[in-house]
Amino acid sequence: MTGQVRGSQLARLLGQWHALPGRRRSPDYAALAGAVRGLLADGRLPLGVRLPAERELAEALRISRTTVTAAYRELRETGHLASRRGAGSWTMLPGNHRVASTGLWTPLDDREMIDLGVAALAAPPQLLTAARAAAEDLPRYLGGAGYHPTGIIELREAVADGYTARGLPTSADQIMVTSGTQHALDLVLRLALAPGGSVLVESPTYPNALAALAGRRARITTHGLAADAGGWESDLLLGSLRQTRPKLAYLIPEFQNPTGHLMPASLREHVVAAAHAVGTDLIIDESFVDLPLDGTELPPPTATFDRHSRVVSIGGMSKPYWGGLRIGWVRASAPQVQRLAAVRVGVDMASPVLDQLVAVHLLADAPAIVADRRTQLAAQRDALLGALAQRLPDWRVTVPRGGVTLWAELDGPVSSALARAAEDVGVRLAPGPRFGLDGTLERFLRLPFTLPAAELVEAVGRIAAVRYDLDRTGRQRWREPAVIA
Prior knowledge:
- There is one protein chain.
- The chain is an alpha/beta fold and 485 residues long.
- 39% of the residues lie in helices and 15% in strands.
- It contains 15 helices and 19 strands.
- Helix 7 runs parallel beside helix 8 (207-215), helix 13 runs parallel beside helix 15 (453-470) and helix 14 (415-423) packs across helix 15 (453-470).
């Protein structure tokens, strides 16, 4: 078991679980059971967690206990709940599912899905060439043990050179290579955040960052991002830092995931100054920094304004290159890097040498690879925007100047219901509440433009049909989505 969820907590997560007119034609217990399945499916409700007692949940939802009893019974019948008399009920998923790469679950028969839950590109053609060159370089490392806790020197120098080229002088001693950006975040949290420590995050934000913070039992406060192109409200963000004085703040200033916002230079400077004044360390996620579109000029790195080692930057190869190449990094002061290496030895020792050599060769060819990626993403973004304008004109979307995702404001609080219904027509979606806390953001949906344009247009057509039917049809059939990355 991983713990227990209280009735009030589950009620917040469920949100508008029976508010859609279409569901009035089916029993409330079926809608409640389906909403719980949806929470399990996208990771907002963990496996093995104890659900509240029937009476407690009924009081929290202001419905009859009979409705909750029937919903729990249906969940047991579908394999989503295990109960033992006198001990309670625990969440589970049916046996015909597998664990996907992010730890969420997916049906075994999901191979034909148009997957809009993953915001990542297929590998570039240059990857094979880089892999062959890396294999030729490998023999000079085979005489040693192969453990390099901070990373091989060639890759650390290449990453450091990238920061220097962006106007932030960096040495190899300030770089630690990790097994992806998520691993970088986990190591920084292990070093800098005691269990139960306070953290400020944006809302919405990256779901796997929330999962990492939950693993540290962090006390999370949020700064809400505006839906328009401005994103951060400067006075509110700085005020949140000064009032809550968190131990850490996790921010994504470059083409924020999921909104695509770009933080201006002036706010970066003020955030660093405010963080220093209140004793907050900043974790700056630069996963999308290589992907400005339409000639957008990037502000200086946030760490440029750091004079007191308050900023730790993390990044990696997943978004501009390939998610299957598990290479990330941390940029910090040299002493911090050594402390991170000491923490890392108790976790996974080091990143694979061969993968690091592949990364060295890809970074050497970065100008050509990244230019191709930007051209590809701009075309796919425009195709997705055109399809949305034609098929779902009531949705509001701010055109991002970079990154790989659109953050769509829907025509109603139907994000979770739409995601569940879209499964039946072969489209996997990442509903808005997956990017926030306690069931908020039901009016929003993240739509990546990382698939070919034809697939994006087809997906929007299917989503539009489902959205039209959602208010008019009865009970939905339920399936579970899988990966959000």
